[in-house]
Amino acid sequence: MAPKSRKKKAHDVSDLDLDEVSALKMENELLRQLNSELQERNKLLNNLVEKGNLLSDVRISYADIAKGHTNINERVPKILVKAKNNDNGETLKKVKMKLTSDLTIPINNVRKNNDGLVSVKCKNTNDIQRVKSVLSEKLGGDYCVDLEHLNFPKIKVTNVENELNKEELCEDICNRNFPDIDGAFNIIADYRNKAGIRSLILELTSESYLHLKNCGFKLYIGYQCCQVYDFFNFNLCYKCGRSNHKHKNCKNEVKCLRCAGDHLTNTCKSTNINCLNCVYYNEKYRKNRPTNHCAMDTCCEYISNSINKIINNTDYPVKPSIPKSLGKIGNWSLQTTDD
Hints:
This protein has a five-stranded antiparallel beta sheet. A four-stranded antiparallel beta sheet has the order 2-3-1-4, with helices on one face. It has eight helices and nine strands. The chain is α+β, with helices and mostly antiparallel strands.
């Protein structure tokens, strides 16, 4: 009886070993699958890190990337199509036909602009050259196919307390702020207001703009640390309240930017706040925009739409900061080139 008992016991142990081996094999297979997935994920994350660090020395964590907080705004320039004889009546139809029949690339939208040009917006930058090449080939020599030109970001630097000339300023700013970035900026305006305070307008590459943003948006000049502001090159006439012309050349009627009355803003005594541009828009187009704000407030649809057009045509690597107002009523310290 004893041998039979020992044999049965040995058989039970053997069965148990086989179960453990099977479990280990299954566990190893699951680990291989998990490891493969992690390698693919790490490869994707490394590509995103390299892309994010391509323009600057910013350190982006894997956690931020996984959550989608990369702080990098990829601008996808539009493809613009125009008939060489300026007859764009059939351009939109032909572009849509070619995109439908000859391409399988994701396209966000195809639209006709106010100036007659047809714009094609691709999903990502990798597809732009292929779409452009196909359209150029299929539309033939009667059409011009180009990429949209994006402007450089601009900043305003105030209270510059030195007498350096433009060449000296460029060298000083470059050495103190952008020593490792070639062609980082260009000074496009250097002026003083009536109080003698010196201000600068700088045009930056997207790389130098991102570098400046990540350094607290401050610029070191001489013995100073100057505060920097996003500049949108949006002029607001303080005589009539309309945009893109100076008050010295204004031929429009006088309008108050505070209450929309027929008087200069600095003489306004009204307790009402009324936006003259929104009042005009409502009367002309029979709309119902809110008007209970100053004409200089960026919450105004007229102002915000104008600024957004500038932003959409500018190569910003990250979202710029929009002020709550273009200036203060009373002292006319408007953030425009009229300063």
